[in-house]
Description:
Its main location: membrane. It is a multi-pass membrane protein. The structure is a single chain. By secondary structure, this protein is of the alpha+beta class. Among the domains are: 68-171, Alpha-Beta Plaits; 175-343, Multidrug efflux transporter AcrB transmembrane domain (Multidrug efflux transporter AcrB transmembrane fold, Up-down Bundle), CATH 1.20.1640. The chain is built from 22 helices and eight strands. It has helices at 7-12, 17-35, 54-62, 85-97, 131-146, 159-171, 174-194, 201-224, 231-260, 266-293, 301-332, 354-364, 366-381, 402-413, 431-439, 470-484, 496-530, 533-562, 571-601, 603-630, 638-670, 690-697; strands at 73-78, 111-112, 118-123, 154-158, 422-427, 444-452, 456-463, 492-494. α17 runs parallel beside α19 (571-601) and α20 packs antiparallel against α21. It is elongated and about 90 Å long. The model is unreliable at 1-7 and 683-699 (pLDDT under 50).
Amino acid sequence: xxxxxxSGWAALWGPRGKWLAVVLAIVVSGLALALGGASKxxxxxxxxxxxxxxxxxxxxxxxxxxxxxxxxxxxxYSRDGGLSPQDRASIDADARRLTALAAGGRVPxxxxxxxxxxxxxxxxxxxxxxxxxxxxxxxxxREEAAAGLxxxxxxxxxxxxxxxxxxxxxxxxxxxxxxxxTASVVALLLLITYxxxxxxxxxxxxxxxxxxxxxxxxxxxxxxxxxxxDDSTLGITSVLVFGAGTNYALLLIARYREQLRVxxxxxxxMARAVRSAAPAVLASSATVTLALVTLVLADSPxxxxxxxxxxxxxVTAVCYALLVLPAALVLFGRxxxxxxxxxxxxxxxxxxxxxxxxGGAVSxxxxxxxxxxxxxxAVLGLGVAGLKVGLSQTEQFREKVEAIAGQETLxxxxxxxxxQPLVLISRASAAEEVEAAASRVPGVVRVTPxxxxxxYARADVVLRAEPGTEAAFSAVRALRAAVHAVPGAQAVVxxxxxxxxxxxxxATRDQKLVMPLVxxxxxxxxxxxxxxxxxAVTLVLTVIASFGASFGxxxxxxxxxxGFPALDLDVPLLSFLFLVALGIDYNIFLxxxxxxxAAEQGTREGVVTALAVTGGVITSAGVLLAAVFSVLGVLxxxxxxxxxxxxxxxxxxxxxxVRSVLVPALVTLLGDRFWWPGDPAAGATPTRTPVRQAExxxx
Length: 699
C-alpha cells in the first residue's frame, strides 16, 4: 500500500508543536469559559410553539389583551365526601387574604363543583414577573391556602403560574447532576477499558473542557443569534459531546497504541495514528453534524434548538479530539499507558483475540449469521405494535409535582376541559357572532366572554373531552372551522388543547421531512468515504433495521415495564436521528478499516481482520455511548428518559449484533461486490503497511 507522508502531522505534535497546541487550547478554552456567559432563555410563549401554528398566533395576540399580561395561580380545594361549611368559610377567607398578592388587587369568588367536593379559586399574578419573584408569589399563595385549612381538606396550586414554578423547581440543579453523572460514567468506563490509573484522565479532561466550551458557544448564540434553548436541550447537547467525543478519543487512542508497537518515536506514532483515524472520525462527525443541521427545517422550535446546539457540540468535540487530545497524549509519553504500556515490536494481541474468533465464525457461515441477525431484529421490531404517540401536559414528567396533582383533581370534578380551556380571539366587532358560532360546535360545554380592547376580544371555551385525546383534537378542528367561517372575524383558536394539536401536526410534518434527509446525508457521507454504492446502501439499510428493532423494543419496555402511556411527540424523530447518525459511526470505523485491510488480504479476510482490530474499541465505544445516553434518565422529563432508553439500547444492539455479526456476514456474502464500483486494491502497491512489516518481521 502507498505510504502516506506524515511529516506535517509529526511536526504538529512534535517536541515543540505539542506544547504550542496545549497552550493554545488552554488560552482559547479559558477565553471561552470566561467570556461565554449564561444562556438567554426566551420568555416569549409564542417562541416555544411550532412555526406558523395558529396557537402561536393566539399567544402573540394575547399579549395585546389585559389578560395576556397575567399568569393565574389556580388554587384547587378538595375533600373526599364534600367540602364542609368550615372548609367553605376558610376558602372565602383565603379569597380575601389573597387579594394582597393578586395583580389588580382582586380575586374572583370561588367556583364549586356540582358535587361540592372541589372548589377553584383563581389568583391572577403578573406574567412578566421574573422567575424568582413568581416563585416567591406562588410560595406565598400556597402558604396562605394551607394556613387555617381544616383537617382533612387539601389545597393544591396549579395553573400557568404553578406549572412554571414547579417545572423550574424540578430542573433546578438537574443539569449539574446530569454533568456529574455523565462524567462519572465516562470516567468509570474509561478506567475499565484502559486499566490504567491515569490514562483515562486525559480524554475525560479534554472532552470535559470541550463540553463546557460548547455550552458557552451556545450561550453566546442565544444572546446574539436568537437561538432558543431550554434545560433539556442543554442536557442533550452535553450528552452528545461526551458520547461522541469519547468515541472519537477511543478510536484515536486505539490507533495510537497500535502505532506505538511499530514506532520508537511517540510523535511519529501519533502522526500516523491521526493520519489513519482522522478520515473515519471526520466522516463520523460530519454525518452527525449534518444530520443535526437538518433539524433547522423542523417546525418545532425545541427540535430546531437541539439540532443547532447539538451540531455545535459535535463540531467542538471533534476539534478537541483531533487537535487537542493528540498533543495532550504525546505530552506524557508511553508511561501514560502503564501498567500495559505498548512496546516497539510487540505483537498486536487483538489480531488473535476474541473478535478475531467472532469474525472467523461469521465468515464461515455468513448466510446463517445473516438469517439469525435479521430474525432477531424483526422480532424486536414487533414490539412496536399498539404504538401511541403524544403525552398530555400532565403526563410529561416522571415526578408528580403539585401543579400536576392539582390539575388532575380539577379535571375529576369539572368538565375535562375546564383545567385547560381553549382561548378564542377575534375582532371585537364580531365577538358576539364568533362566540355564538363556537357555542354550537359539538363537544363545547360553554363559551365564556373575556376581556377585550377596541381591536380584539377574547373568550374561553371549555371542551367536554379530556385534553390530548382524539376527541379533543376533533373538537379543536371543528371549532376552528366554525369560527374561521365567520366573515371579517379573523378568529383564531389557541390554548393548551390547541397547542397539543399543533405540536402533533408539526411533529408529523417534521418526521416526513427530516427522516429522509437524515438518511440522504448518511448515504452521501458513506458514498464519499467508501466510494462504493453497494457498501453505502447496505450499511444504511442495517442502521434502519437497527432503529426499527430498537424502537419496537423501547416501546414494549415503556408499555409493559415503565408504564408510560405513550411516546412523546419528538421521541420518534430524535431517537431516529441519534441512532442513525451515531450508529453509523461504528459501521464507518469497521468499513474504513475493512477497506484498508481488503487492499492486501481481499474482502473476506479483510473484514475478519478489521473486526479483530476494531472490535474491542468499538465495543467499548458502544457501551460507553449507551451508558451516556441512559444518563438522560436523571432528568425528570419522560421525553428524555424515552430517548435515552431507545438510543442506549439501539447503540448496544448496533455494537453487539449489527456491527459484529450482520455487517461482516453481509460483506462476506457479497465479497468484492461490496465495494462496487470501487476497488480497495486500486492504486495499492506491494509495499506493506508499518504494522504488516512489524508482523512479518516477527519470528
